């Protein structure tokens, strides 16, 4: 098969992103927005609290009434009402009066401080106050937690559970978020079986489990995983469907043998190749194609290559579709030396760990570490240029979703 000169990893990403825009924002209830990316700045729809409220169980009063209170000369105030968190429109406080108020209860008009219940002496329907306090004592002002119009989550930021809770409390009913990219994953090979099925003559399609986990951890929504046999017609029929999701990922069939027809199947299904091979190892024979709004990643079959292609190419594309900016570089110190072979950019599986505030990377490479075992332990990939010599203590860039 005649193949083009492979692009660098950076060139491949740039070429793909030229053809993509983030998924269009949709109105989303805050309680369903966790993990999505804000399509616009999300701001508080009201003050929290909406009205000044007490932060202690105690008594609301006028500071001016107790400015002369002393232990030997207490001030007596009449308690005229009890205010709870759910109370609305409490009666105003007049001179010489106080209101029993529970935590979260609105401070009544006329009151400008709250005394904790342990700081007063109760005497029937009156209280005795022995110490003056300043205005605002144990009172949370309207907007004291968050003011109306305050930005909760900026545009292009993932909405956290705690941010979604604050949005809900500020009475937002919908916010604009980018949808999670919808993905189908197809493992190509007549020797493969869907994971969980019992077939001693076939191998479980581990790439389906690997790809699904990586994608969901990175904010995508996997809507289908399946195994397709080595029949070009089956692949063409599948890829020719009118209802393909945002992203389709295939694994296997990208080499040069007579059973490697992933590229041909993509072309016969109306896809245009954007990237045909990438100058990196593992994963050199991957390709990327597009039809309408669907992006197709054709990955090699070995799981270590799928792991590499995800971190090197697919992850930045998923971030872009989600509405996220490019991830800043993550740097780690190598714990032992490593020499990269000349030629391609090499992506090396690494164990990652924090040593204090320093991220360290232990390469999982060499004859003593088979690729599949290394992948099981890896939390990221180190980027090495062909011919690089890395010494213990040197910093390298790491592609990871763990940090």
CATH class of the largest domain: Alpha Beta
Principal-axis shape equals elongated
Major sheet:
6 strands, mixed
Helix content: 10-25%
Share of β-strand residues: 25-35%
At the fold tier of CATH, the topology name of the largest domain is: Molybdenum Cofactor Biosythetic Enzyme, Chain A
Strand order of the largest sheet: 8-5-7-6-10-9
Overall description:
With 403 residues, this protein is α+β, with helices and mostly antiparallel strands. It folds into four domains: 9-23 and 179-322, Molybdenum Cofactor Biosythetic Enzyme, Chain A; 26-44 and 156-178, no CATH class; 53-140, Molybdopterin biosynthesis moeA protein, domain 3 (Beta Complex); 330-400, Beta Barrel (Beta-clip). Helix content is 18%, strand content 32%. The chain has seven helices and 29 strands. The protein has helices at residues 9-18, 161-169, 206-217, 232-239, 262-268, 303-322, 371-377; strands at 26-28, 37-38, 42-43, 53-54, 58-61, 75-83, 97-101, 113-116, 120-123, 126-129, 139-140, 151-153, 175-178, 182-188, 192-193, 203-204, 221-228, 247-251, 272-276, 280-281, 287-291, 294-299, 330-334, 338-339, 345-355, 358-363, 380-384, 389-390, 395-400. The strands form eight sheets. The chain has a six-stranded mixed beta sheet with strand order 8-5-7-6-10-9, with no helix packed on it. Strand 21 and strand 22 (294-299) form a beta hairpin. The two termini are 40 Å apart. The mean pLDDT is 94.
